[in-house]
Amino acid sequence: MTDHRLRYFDDYQPGTTYDCGSVRVSQDEMISFAKQFDPQPFHVDPAAAALGPFGGLIASGWHTGGLVMRQIVAHFLPAEASLGSPGLDEIRWPEPVRPGDTLRVRATVAEARRSQSKPDRGLVKTVIEAVNQDDTTVMRATAINFLRVRPESDA
Amino acid sequence: MTDHRLRYFDDYQPGTTYDCGSVRVSQDEMISFAKQFDPQPFHVDPAAAALGPFGGLIASGWHTGGLVMRQIVAHFLPAEASLGSPGLDEIRWPEPVRPGDTLRVRATVAEARRSQSKPDRGLVKTVIEAVNQDDTTVMRATAINFLRVRPESDA
Known about the structure:
Two copies of one chain form a homodimer.
Chain A: E1 17-24, H1 27-37, H2 41-44, H3 46-50, H4 61-75, E2 87-92, E3 102-114, E4 121-131, E5 137-148
Antiparallel strand pairs in A: 1-3, 2-5, 3-4, 4-5
């Protein structure tokens, strides 16, 4: 795990990009996730998928999102400061994720704004991208997170 | 499963809301999902969560999204016509999902537009909402889907 020294809201600098490591996704995992949450033929049935719109099995976008989130939690969202997320402004899956793909995740701080109503926290907007082994972007999203500001005692 | 007689792009009428059934989420499922994809303390550790920002364990938003997607696939996205999704325009989780909550899912067609470049399909934008047993909205998203138009032979 890369330690980017992100501890509190104060550490997030707009314009900075953080490498969040990479994750490989197997066909078995893709099918197992999709059977539970997104059982469309091109996510769960290799034979049907081969004849379908993507010419083969592809990951559910929700699975890709979960895999990306795991990297974000490990490298970008410190447990002691994270106060949850009200949502994402946009998610795009411009190209499919296929069995065996390795996704590299990076997070770029787009905006960091101290809360007026709750001065113990700030809001951080982050552009999250996942690119595969061929440098093709397979997911892009703008996430919103609330983060605790650095306690006075820790200044 | 409710059959809304949605078969092809042509059947999606802007302004119409479709009931997509309901799903109950247990604490064990919440923890198991979050351990894999979103291991923040308030998603995986009941004791830490009790002292955390939400006063108890809450579901990962990605888990809520997956559970909602399952209902959408079962009630709103016919396997024979679905051609995948380029993404979502917005996701919001206005209130937390807690262990034992039952979420009712509904989908309202916001826009349906035939593709100019690929006349075999159309684009449908849908506002998806999940409300809990207290009628509190816990998720809202605008999804984009490509759907095949009705074949001539089936007209």
